[in-house]
Amino acid sequence: MDQDTDGDGPVLRTPRLLLRPWNPADRAPFAALNADPQVMEHFPARLTRAESDALADRIANAIRRDGFGFWAVEIAATGAFIGFTGLSVPSFTTHFTPAVEIGWRLARHAWGHGYATEAARHALAHGFQNLRLDEIVSFTTTANQRSQAVMTRIGMTRDPHGDFQHPRIPPDSPLQHHVLYRIDAATWKHHSTPEPQ
């Protein structure tokens, strides 16, 4: 896996993308995607600019603190910021926590190009090869078929006994019920294509 390091943490390079620490220029396009009703369809609400900036700050701080997180994703050929992909420790408590999750959120214009799958595969490789994690999980709302398809493409398996009511979402919300996907290190190693060094 092609990886560099800057002062704020690792930079992962895929054939088309950079997964990197955040910079101030990411804030405006991040706010735009967080205000897009289609991007935020499976979240409780769209974010204001202030809420989006606060989220970006929390993500950037986590990368500096932990050495991993939801990296900013840019298209290597153009330098365009298209969202985030990476690893994070869920901040809520439920039956499968503590855990490390993989997640992504990309701008709508970046959908349909395979970017989420490409970035997520490299994030998984970093988690298992470099961080030596035993397992990585992912979760989303029942209706979010697009994200579930990415989870399947990167080798994760649905754990139907792991479905849960998200404790941060009101009980009367149709978004509260979440599905859980998992992949462990042995499964990833068995199914992954060796990354070039």
Automatic annotation (TrEMBL):
Task: Quote the InterPro entries the UniProt record gives.
Answer: Acyl_CoA_acyltransferase (IPR016181), GNAT_dom (IPR000182), N-acetyltransferase (IPR051531)
Domain (N-acetyltransferase): give its ranges. 17-186
Q: Which PANTHER family match?
A: GNAT FAMILY, PUTATIVE (AFU_ORTHOLOGUE AFUA_3G00765)-RELATED-RELATED (PTHR43792), N-ACETYLTRANSFERASE DOMAIN-CONTAINING PROTEIN (PTHR43792:SF1)
Supply the name of the protein: GNAT family N-acetyltransferase
Instruction: Specify the species.
Output: Actinomadura vinacea
